[in-house]
Amino acid sequence: MTAPSERLANWPGSEEPVVTENDGSFGARRIADPRSVVAEWRAKAEAHGWSLRETVIAIGPQRGHIGTPSRLADKFAHFVRHGAIDGFNVTPYLIPDGLDDIVDLLVPDLQERGIYRTEYTGTTLRENLGLREPLTHRSAPDRRQAG
Q: Which residue among 23, 40, 131, 145 has its CA within the 20 to 30 Å range from the CA of 67?
């Protein structure tokens, strides 16, 4: 095993980070002093012997659910059966490879448990969501007059 100090020396950004202005848009977190955050992360990485990847995973935002497809499917099935959720919005941790894992591994496990569709009966999104037909169907001339 590589010594922690040697592993940290291999960090791509072992020198000071490039600091850019972050206005908090698009869900970005504002950090008052990015250099102190980097120093804190480096100290934790050295103390635990983490690589850069291990550091990001350990310290990064802990959103969502982590586990094997089978364990996640069990967890989601429990939530569905107890009325805690009625749908899924799943985003892969790693892109694009993680999407393949969701489609090829997680979705079939959810389908086996009967909590994810295997087919759609409607021909439109509106039908598949159980929504009524629109009240009016305007023709092209009607839309021009309304605008």
A: 40
Instruction: Round to whole Å and give the CA distance between 95 and 1.
Output: 29
Q: Work out the pLDDT band at 73, boundaries 50, 70, 90.
A: very high
pLDDT for 141 equals 61
Peptide bond into 61 cis (omega under 30): no
Q: Give 125's Cβ-side CA count (13 Å radius).
A: 0
Q: What are the CA-CA distances from residue 48 to residues 4, 6, 55 (Å)? A: 8, 13, 9
Quick one: tokens of 70? 């089978």
Query: 111 and 119 in contact (C-beta within 8 Å)?
Result: no
Does the pTM surpass 0.70? The reply is: no
Q: Is the separation of the CB atoms in 128 and 121 below 8 Å?
A: yes
Distance (Å, rounded) from C-alpha 135 to C-alpha 50? 59
CA dihedral 98, 100, 103, 107 (to 10 degrees): -50
Query: What token pair was written down for 114?
Result: 């009967």
Give me the helices (H) in 1-84, please.
4-9, 34-48, 52-59, 69-81
Are 22 and 30 in contact, with CB atoms under 8 Å apart? Answer: yes
pLDDT in tens, 46-64: 899 988 778 877 877 666 7
